[in-house]
C-alpha cells in the first residue's frame, strides 16, 4: 500500500490555503499624535484620576467578514522615553474603555522606539518590559500593570474578549509622569478568530529531592562576573541523585520550590545532566547583552517548562507563582559550554543532576527551598484543540484507545464520533507538533505540516445527523506503510492526529474534529 500525503486531495490543499488566508485582518488609518498631547505629562493621580492631556486618535472600522474577536493593536512608529510612564487604552464603538498596556511599576526606565504589536495574553507573547532597551520591534503581550480594574471606568479585559463592532474606535495614550515624551505615527486594529486555549501541561512524575535549599548567590550579593565570558564566582549549586521513572520519555519540567530573589533580570539558571553537559533553563529576562534586565521579584513556587506556559512577563512587582516557559534570553548557545537546549531534548539519564543559579549583578539576593526534576510519563493520548461545529451542530471528537507502542505491545485504535452522517472523510497526522490555524468560522487545523493521511472512508450513519463515525487501526496502518511519516518510530516520539470530512454548507465545504497527541511507548 502506497502511503498518501494529506496535500494529495486538491480540495484539502485549497481548503488549507484558504485557512491560512483566514488569519487576522487589519484595519489601518489610526492617526498620529504626541504622547502626551501637550506638555510633558503628569497631572493625574494613579489610578483613579487620569492625566489631563492624553494622545487621542480615532479609527473608522468595518469588522472584516467572519471575524469574531479583536486580535491585536498595532502601533507603528511609536516612541517614548520611560515606558513606565505610559498607558494605552482602547474605546470600542459602544463606549467601553479597555486597558491594553499600563507600564506603572512593571516597566521602569525602558524606551519605546519602533513598530509594535500588542496581543491578548493567551497568545503567550513576551512582555514589552522584557524586550530590551529600547524595546525591539515585535509582538508583545497586553499587560495591565498595577492598574486597578474599573478605575476611571477602564476595564482590565483581554483583547480577544473586548466586544467588537463596526464603527469608531478610539486610542488613548496617557502619560502618568512629567519629563518624558513620545509619539505614535499611526495605528491599526486586527480582527480574526479567537485563539483556542493552550493544551494542559503534560503529565509528569517528579523525583523528590528534599536537600536543594540555599542562598542565591551562595555568598555576598552577586555580581563580579563579566557578561558573558566570566561567570559570577559564588553561584547557588545543588546536586540531586535522580533515578528516572519507568516509562519516562523526556524531561517535562523543573520545579523551583520557595524561590525568592529581587530583580529577576540578574539571574541565570543552568541544569547539568549526569554526563556533565550544561543546559540553560532561564537567562536574565529583559536583559540585552548584559544590561540590567527586568526589575521584578520571585516569591513562591515556580515550574519551568519547555513551552506552552506563561512567558516571563510581570504585572506589578512580582512574577506570579506558577508555570513558565524556558528562557534563553540573549545567551549564545555554547558560551562557556552552556547550551540552549530545549528541556524535551536534554538526554534522560539516571545519575547526578545539578542546578546552578548565577547572580550577575550586585545588590539583590534571594534563596531556594528545594528543586525537583520532573519527567514526562505518558498516561494516555492527550486531547487538545477545538472541534468545528458542523451544519447540523455536530462536534466531531477524535480519541485513541491507548498510546502506541514501538514493539506493538498493545492495540491502538483511533475513533472519531459525532461526524456528519454519510460524508467522506479521513484521519491525518503530523509529527511536528500542535498548532491552532483557523480553518473555517468554527474550526482549527491543529497539526503542523507536513502531514500524512489515511485512506478516504465513508462516515456511515444518517444524513443530516451526527451519527457518522471514522476509524483507523493505527498499528495496522503503520505496519502496512513502513515509509510513512514518522516511521520507524522510537519511544518518546509524538504524533498529532485529526479528522477531516466533507460538510458542503460549511466554510470551505469541510470541517475538522478536535485533535489528539499520542506518545510512543517502548
Task: Describe the 3D structure.
There is one protein chain. 4% of the residues lie in helices and 40% in strands. Strands 13, 14, 16, 19, 20, 21, 24 and 25 form an eight-stranded mixed sheet that branches. Strands 1, 26, 29, 32, 33, 35 and 36 form a seven-stranded antiparallel sheet that branches. The protein has helices at 10-21, 474-480; strands at residues 4-5, 25-30, 33-35, 55-61, 69-80, 86-91, 97-102, 112-119, 138-141, 154-155, 167-175, 182-192, 204-207, 214-216, 236-242, 250-261, 267-272, 278-283, 297-305, 318-319, 322-325, 338-339, 351-359, 366-368, 370-376, 382-384, 397-400, 413-419, 424-430, 434-438, 444-447, 451-453, 457-458, 468-473, 494-502, 510-519. The chain contains two helices and 36 strands. The protein is mainly beta. It has three domains: 4-17 and 380-519, Immunoglobulin-like (Sandwich); 23-192, Jelly Rolls, CATH 2.60.120; 204-376, Galactose-binding domain-like (Jelly Rolls, Sandwich).
